[in-house]
Amino acid sequence: MPDLDLNKLMEMAQNAQSELQKATQNLESIEVEGIAGGAW
Questions:
Q1: What is the C-alpha separation between 20 and 33, in angstroms, rounded?
Q2: Is the overall model pTM greater than 0.85, yes or no?
């Protein structure tokens, strides 16, 4: 098996987490704008 670089693995996990956080924030702001804009 190839050696796993733990630091790189942790970095990738953190990047994925921050991307997920950004996507969640975008979704929340879109929902809020939709409600405020009377789209519902």
A1: 20
A2: no
